[in-house]
Specification:
Length: 300
């Protein structure tokens, strides 16, 4: 989960290895938690001056029902994986609705979409205005998996396609073509999944996708090595997104903004969304969530 300056790329792997990383609370601007060591000085200053924009506020409403289950995942090397499905208010958990799969950021799990972002309450506040209500599903993808098969055999994408979606279909949910939503690491995961499985994706929305053009700039642990990095390069397969409705949002003070601009420039058509005041923070993601959720509702 994490940030950028238009004039400065994210810190290198070497500097992160030297400096370490952890979570800290943002200061006077109240922009939400960020990862220590990833915010350049300009962003701290902009946050203190209120130049990164207001924080989004989770609606004070009652969400719909949530179902939580777990299973032993063969694709994730026998790990127990938990998923949660959040339904719109007043909708029974037997309803046959489409699915929006929410891919969490670094250090997150299936709870993050609800406890950190409050997606279930944003849905509850807006669903009456949407043409297509849907179920938001979040699943454990690994705290630093970057949503792709790793050298040790852990494969979150195979888990989604071969294990999670069939389980959701058994519950009566519509999984032939799904919506995708993700932030930071999960934003990268959205783009990667959509490129690898375009026939399964009806629409995709990414916030602050964690993208790098150069392996030397990559967060430690995001990829096994340079070969892994190149094998999962989302810039190399952008043509696969040609027919998928796509929205990408990124704060102008996010360290990933330059890489996001480069990704958008390489698409056949400009996606919805854009670059707003904001950094790599919960406050920014909460502010962008209503537009992202509505985009998916209108394109499912």
């Amino acid at each position: 989960m994490f940030p950028a300056t238009i004039a400065r790329m994210p810190p290198s792997r070497r500097s992160l290895l030297a400096g370490g990383a952890g979570f800290l609370a943002a200061g006077a601007a109240g922009v939400g938690f960020i990862e220590a060591g990833l915010l350049p000085g300009r962003v701290h200053l902009h946050a203190a001056l209120g130049l990164t924009g207001p924080d989004g506020v989770v609606p004070s409403v009652t969400p719909g029902a949530r179902v939580t289950k777990s299973f032993r995942s063969r694709a994730r090397r026998g790990q127990r994986v938990t998923w949660s499905a959040s339904y719109p208010p007043d909708v029974p958990t037997t309803a046959r609705l489409p699915v929006v799969l929410a891919l969490h950021g670094r250090g997150g799990d299936h709870r993050s979409a609800f406890t950190d972002l409050g997606i279930d309450r944003f849905v509850a506040a807006a669903v009456a205005e949407w043409p297509t209500p849907y179920v938001v599903v979040s699943v454990d993808g690994g705290s630093l998996s970057f949503w792709h098969r790793r050298r040790d055999g852990d494969d979150p994408q195979a888990m989604i396609v071969d294990e999670l979606l069939p389980r959701l279909a058994e519950r009566g949910l519509r999984t032939d073509r799904i919506g995708l939503l993700g932030w930071s690491m999960g934003g990268y995961g959205v783009l990667l999944f959509a490129e690898r499985h375009p026939d399964r994706v009806a629409a995709a929305a990414a916030m602050s996708p964690a993208l790098w053009r150069d392996y030397d700039d990559v967060w430690p642990g995001a990829f096994d090595d340079v070969t892994d990095f190149r094998a999962h390069d989302v810039y190399a397969r952008q043509a696969a997104l040609r027919d998928i409705p796509l929205r990408i949002d990124c704060g102008r003070d996010d360290p990933f903004a330059p890489a996001a601009r480069a990704f958008i420039a390489g698409l056949d058509r400009r996606p919805a969304g854009g670059f707003q005041r904001g950094a790599h923070t919960l406050g920014y993601w909460r502010r962008m969530l209503p537009a992202q959720l509505a985009f998916l509702a209108w394109n499912l």
